[in-house]
Every structure is written in structure tokens, then in C-alpha cells.
Amino acid sequence: MFKNLGDTINKNKLYKSFALFITFLKASTFTFAGGLAIVPAIERDAVEKYKLLSEDEFMEYATLSQTMPGVIALNCATLVGRRAAGVVGMLAAGFGAILPAFVFMLLATILAKMIPQQGRFLGAMRGIRAASAALVLSAAFSLGRYNLKSTFAVIVMIAALLLVVLGNLGAPVIIVLSGVTGYIYQHIKRYQERSRNDAS
Amino acid sequence: MMLLNCFKLFYTFVKLGFLSFGGGYAMLSMIMSEARHFSVTPAQFADLNALDMVVPGAIAINAATYVGYLYQGMAGSIAATIGVSLPSFVLTVVVMRFFAHFKDNLWLTDILSGIKPAAVGLIAAAAITIASDVLTVPGKDIGNLLVNPIGTLSLVPVVVFILTAVLNIRFKINPILLTVLAGIVGAIVIL
Asked: What is the least distance, in Å, from the CA of A196 to any CA of chain B?
């Protein structure tokens, strides 16, 4: 009796892992911008179609995947996969999310290397590169709109910018430094607020 | 040698994966700051950013595959992709075990209050590095900008850069459309 029960659970896990793989393979293939754009597509499949987890659980993981370091779309896959079908589910979902990004980019890179770097082709490439640089700047603007709401944030942003451009510091060092700065600043701020409240 | 280089790719991308917060562009800027170790030029990064718009999947995985391939071919692209992906698997296992402690964690919020604005600075720095490479006359260094601005900057790319920035930031014109137009303008005007 228990043996049968075990079989049912295993089959169920296998089915779920397959569903997870398909869900994230599809989501990753049809999302071009990455990050948050992927969420609605996953929700439709994981919650409504395959019923792998509840809507609330899914939203919780979707939020958590943005707080965690690493690739957001992949965080979402591994969290949802692990919750729905354990370690096997995590691997299936993660692999599904990685595969299209890897395969299509590999093909694109090989094809792009074939473009001749001369004449009109080079002209087109130089135009595209100039636009591309502008779009990276645009990304800084749109992220800045949400993340630069205090004087402290603006100072950290400018410091990071100068340290990279003029100080030639690597990004990992900047991230660690800014994390420590944020931690210390918030503690000082809280301490000051507390002493102000005590005084009044 | 190849094995060592692939391990270097793997190690670098694991490190970037664990330290990157805030998604694709933040990660892209971090990868760029490390890319000089893998002899990837700012112009090649501009190509990557353009390719990213039409290639499906997460930007950071695309970037790892691209940098890995340019540096060490197929083996390199696999090493970098596994590297950038590994943190998600490791952190998922850790976070699920201590979920209650992670969710409304005050120290994480404190740390992120510094990292989020720094990520904006990193992206802006990436834009400056790419621009200073792709907007200059081939062979000229941006260091000459103040001495000889007209001989250093390439007119058409600078105009395309400014127009694209304004049309996308101010008027929200579709980035893929702008990139295609920039390519057409480049093919017609730059020789």
C-alpha cells in the first residue's frame, strides 16, 4: 500500500517537473526584455494551467526573486520549481529558463561574428552601437527614477559612477562598498531618530 | 590553458551572480566592468546590448553566453552560463530553508538602500564607457576630447546617440525601432 503511495508521489513529482520545465522554457523563449516582463507568462502556466502552486505563493516568490541577488527570471524559476517539486523541480525549472537564453544567444553571437566589418555593414554597425550606448544610458535613467529618491541615494550613485569611470574600480568592489555604506547609513539614521525622540 | 580560462570565466560569473541586485541592466554593467579581463571591448558590449533586444531570455544569461563565447568559444560560453546561473540554485535552497528570516529582513533592506543607487551609477558608468568608445573616430582615444573635440568625436554616431537618448528617455519610442533606424542611418551616411 505504501509502495503504491510512493509511486504516485514520484509520478506526480515527475509530471510536475516536466510541467515546470515546459513553463519556464516557454516563458524564457517568448520574453525578450527579461526581468519582470516574464512574470505574467509564468503565472498563467504555473498557477492556472498546471496548478503547481497557489496565486499567493507565486506572487510571494515573484517578489522574492527580485530581492535575491542573481538573474531575476532564473531566481523565479528555481524558487517556484523548488516549492512545486523539490530539488528535481528546481533543476527542471532552472534548466528550462536557461536553455533558450543560452541557445539563441549562442546562435546570435555566431551569426553576428559573420557580419563583415567593412563598408555599409560597418556603417550600420556603428549606427547601431551609438543607439545601443544611448539605450544603456536610458536604462540608467529609468532605474534611477525609482532608486534615487533621497540625497543619500544620489550621493551613492555619483560616488559609484566616479569610482568606476575615474577610479577604475571593479563592480564587485563597488557593490560590497555600497552595501556596507547603506547598512551603516541606515543605522546612523535610526540612532539619530531615536536620540531625537528621547530628547523631546 | 583553455581549461584555466574557462575556470576564470566560471569563477567571475559566479561572483557577479552572487553580488548583482536589480536585474538585467545592473548585471550587464557589472559584467562590463569585469569584461576587460576577457578582452571584450566596449564596442562589442554595444553589440551585445543591441543583440539582447532581439534574443529571447534573461539579459544576464545572454551576456554570460556572449562574453564566454568571445573569450573561449563554445566551452567558454557554457562555463560562463553555468557560472551566472549557479547562485540562483544555491540561494534558492538556502532561502527556502530560512524563508521566514529572509522575507522582511531589516539588514537586507539596509544593505539594498546602498546597493540600489550604486547599481544606477554602474549602469551610467557602462553607458559612458560604451559611448566613449563607439562615438569616437576609430583609432582615436577619448582622452583627446578636450584637446581636439572635432577630430576625436565622430559626428554621425554622436547625433544618433543624442537623438536615440532623447527619443527613448523623453518620448518612450520603442528601442528596437530606434536601433533599426540607427542601423539604416549608419549604412547610408557612414562610409
From this structure: 21
Q: Compute the distance between CA of residue B125 and CA of residue A149 in angstroms, rounded to an integer.
A: 20
Measured CA to CA, the distance from residue B133 to residue B125 in angstroms comes to 13
Q: Report the C-alpha gap between A163 and A175 in whole angstroms.
A: 11
Choosing among B54, B94, B113, which should be mutated to test the A contact, i.e. which has the most A CBs within 10 A? B113
pTM: 0.87
Task: Report pLDDT digits (tens) over A165-185.
Answer: 888 788 889 999 999 999 999
Contact B111 A153 (CB under 8 A): no
Buried b / exposed e along B79-89 (16+ C-beta atoms within 10 A) = bbbbbbbbbbb
Please give the Cα distance from A52 to A58 (Å, whole number). Answer: 9
- Say if residue B81's pLDDT is above 90: yes
Buried b (16+ CB within 10 A) or exposed e, A33-53: bbbbebbebbbebbbeebebb
What is the pLDDT at residue A81? Answer: 94
* CB atoms inside a 10 Å sphere around CB A57: 16
CA distance B189 to B182: 10
For residues B82 and A98, the answer to whether their CB atoms sit within 8 Å is: no
**Cross-strand pairs, B153:** B136
Instruction: Tell me which residue in B47, B84, B91 faces A68 most closely, judged by beta carbons.
Output: B91
Say what the pLDDT of residue B24 is. Answer: 79
Instruction: Indicate yes or no: CB of B114 within 8 angstroms of CB of A174.
Output: no
* C-beta atoms of A67 and B88 within 8 A: no
